[in-house]
Design a protein that fits this description.
The complex is a heterodimer of chains A (about 120) and B (about 110). Chain A is mostly helical and about 120 residues long. Chain A contains 5 helices and no strands. Chain A has one domain. Chain A is globular, with a radius of gyration of 16 Å. Classes of the chains: A mainly alpha (about 120), B mainly alpha (about 110).
C-alpha cells in the first residue's frame, strides 16, 4: 500500500474517533440523549454505511477513507457485546432480548434508509 | 485531559485500524476484540489506561459497520435464512468468547 492510502486511512480514523468521543462526552453531560451513546454511534454508522454502499463509489482512496477509516473507528462492536454481557450478568433476560432486537431492527432500518435515499437521489 | 493521553489514544486507534485492515477477516477480528474487552474490563488498572485500551483499541479494532457489511453480502444474494443464522451465531459466539476472557482474567488475578 502506498503513502496516499495510508494518509487517507489516518485522516478517516481521526475523524471517526473524534466524532465517537464527542458523542460519548455529550451524552455523559447532558440529558439530551438517554446516555446510551453506543446505540447512537452504531445506528449512525449503519446509516452512513447504507449511504456509502448505495452511492456505489469505486475510487479506492475514498473507500479507504470512508469504509476502513471513518466507519471502522466510529462504530464499535465489542462495546455492544459488552452491554449484552452486562445484562446477562445482572440476569435481566427480558431487557436483553428487547435491547438485542431493538439494536438489530433500528440498524437495519437506518441502513435501508441510507441505501434507498442515495439510490433514488444520486443514481 | 492532557496532551500525552490524547496522543496515545490517537496512536492506539491508528494501530488498531491498520491491524484490522491487514487481518481483513471478520470472525478473527470480532473474536479478538471481544476477548480483549472481556479480559480488561474488570481488571484493576488506572482509568486513563482502561479508556485507551477499551475505547481506543477495542472499539477501533472491532466495527459494527463491518458486521453490517458482512450481513449485507447475504442480503444481496438472497440468503435470508443464512442471514438470520449468521446474525445470531456471531453474537452468541462473541458473548461466549467475552465470558472466557472475563473468567480468565479473574483466575489470573
Amino acid at each position: 500500500m502506498e503513502l496516499d492510502g495510508v494518509i487517507h486511512i489516518v485522516v478517516g480514523s481521526t475523524f471517526g474517533l473524534v466524532v465517537r468521543m464527542f458523542i460519548k462526552y455529550i451524552s455523559g453531560r447532558e440529558k439530551v440523549f438517554s446516555s446510551n451513546n453506543i446505540l447512537i454511534v452504531n445506528i449512525l454508522a449503519s446509516l452512513f454505511l447504507g449511504m456509502f454502499l448505495g452511492s456505489n463509489i469505486t475510487n479506492k482512496n475514498l473507500i479507504l477513507f470512508f469504509s476502513v477509516g471513518f466507519l471502522g473507528c466510529l462504530s464499535t462492536f465489542s462495546s455492544f457485546i459488552y452491554q449484552l454481557f452486562k445484562l446477562i450478568q445482572e440476569r435481566k433476560y427480558l431487557s436483553l432480548l428487547i435491547y438485542y432486537t431493538e439494536v438489530l431492527i433500528l440498524s437495519f432500518l437506518f441502513f435501508c434508509l441510507g441505501y434507498f435515499i442515495t439510490l433514488t437521489y444520486i443514481n | 485531559m492532557n496532551k500525552k493521553y490524547l496522543l496515545t489514544l490517537l496512536l492506539t486507534a491508528y494501530f488498531a485500524t491498520f491491524l484490522r485492515f491487514y487481518i481483513n477477516n471478520y470472525f478473527v477480528i470480532s473474536f479478538v476484540g471481544s476477548f480483549v474487552y472481556g479480559f480488561y474490563v474488570s481488571r484493576s488498572i488506572s482509568n486513563s489506561k482502561r479508556e485507551i485500551l477499551l475505547s481506543g483499541f477495542c472499539s477501533c479494532f472491532t466495527s459494527f459497520s463491518g458486521f453490517v457489511h458482512f450481513l449485507y453480502q447475504f442480503i444481496i444474494q438472497g440468503y435470508y435464512l443464512k442471514l438470520f443464522v449468521y446474525l445470531n451465531v456471531i453474537v452468541i459466539l462473541n458473548l461466549i468468547v467475552m465470558y472466557i476472557g472475563f473468567q480468565l482474567s479473574r483466575k489470573i488475578t
